[in-house]
Amino acid sequence: IPIFDIDGKKPDTDLHYSQINMQHVLLRSRFAHQATENLYYGIHYGILNYNGYFNGHRSRHQDIGLNFRYSKKHYTAYLSFTHNANNQSENGGLENTVLSLTDMLFLVNLPVRLNTASNGSPKHENRHLSVSYRHFWQNNIENPTFKIGHQLLFENNKFKYFDSNPSPDSSFYGNFQTNNRGIRHFLLHRVLDNEFSWTQSFGGNLNKSALIFKAFVGYRWNGVNQEPEKFNVHNLYAGAELKDRLNGPLTYNADIKFVN
After folding, report:
1. Host H or E run for residue 7
2. CA distance 165 to 184
3. How many angstroms separate the Cα of 259 from the Cα of each of 108, 214, 231, 233, 236?
4. 66, 69, 68, 62: which is closest to 82 by C-alpha?
5. Could you give the CA distance from residue 3 to residue 39 in angstroms, rounded to a whole number?
6. DSSP H or E run through 255
7. Which residues of 125-151 are buried (b: 16+ CB within 10 A; e: fewer)?
């Protein structure tokens, strides 16, 4: 989520709306505000609603984001929240008899292989939730040479595919050879990341950027539920990064990371 530099207390706003054929809608909006000298917050929202030209084909995507920044003297903190929801309905394609239906003047009337309901199945659903918090302390605001940081990240990802109203004849599933109850796939993935870092810069002047060294250590948990299996993965990791810019446009980065 972007963070904007706003002069004064007047909020920065943006709104975009587009609509086609009374069915396809696109909306994007943003509200960013420097509420006080120390506190900034932003709200981002978007939605896409699309109905396909044929029966049973529809897309709906919605996302919202909130972010906060608090800074005072040598301390800065960020808190971000994002949520994305994606829904997709499929119709299985057109029937083989479509080519012979020359009297069909409207695409919406053409027969499809699966459902004809605007909110029917099969359907794909995807949900993504992310909450992150990071803060750091630095010894100098204008030109910091030493920084201690900490960040905490939680993510929740869920994907589901299902067919709640399958055809009486399951032969259209092909190689899956499933029965009339249809097919279903579910995946839930959770991530928790906790990291501490130390950043130090060396040298630097008007003609050359400083050499930046960063060391970090952290813990990451992955929880996976993929029907019918459930498992957890725990990792401890540590690493270091080195960043330098040579005279001119050339920049190089070097990093090393150990994971257990």
Report:
1. none
2. 12
3. 54, 17, 19, 12, 6
4. 66
5. 12
6. strand 251-259
7. ebebebebebbbebeeeeebeebebbb
Query: DSSP label at 180?
Result: T
Q: Which two tokens stand for residue 111?
A: 């027969």
What tokens does 11 get?
A: 């909020």
Q: Is the pLDDT assigned to residue 21 strictly greater than 80?
A: no
- DSSP single-letter state for residue 124: E
Residues 57, 63: contact at Cβ < 8 Å? no
Structure tokens at 107: 């695409």
- Give the residues across from 151 on adjacent strands: 134, 195
> DSSP readout, 38-54?
SEEEEEEEEEEEEE-SS
Question: Token pair of 93, please?
Answer: 């394609």
What's the rounded Cα separation, in Å, for the pair 60 and 117? 15
Reported pTM: 0.74
Q: Which residues contact 250 (CB under 8 A, 6 or more apart)?
A: none
**Nearest to 234, CA basis, from 193, 200, 197, 199:** 193
Strands 184-202 and 12-20: unpaired
Q: Among all chains, which residue has been given the structure tokens 């299902």?
A: 162
Residue 171 pLDDT level (bands cut at 50, 70, 90): very low
DSSP 99: G
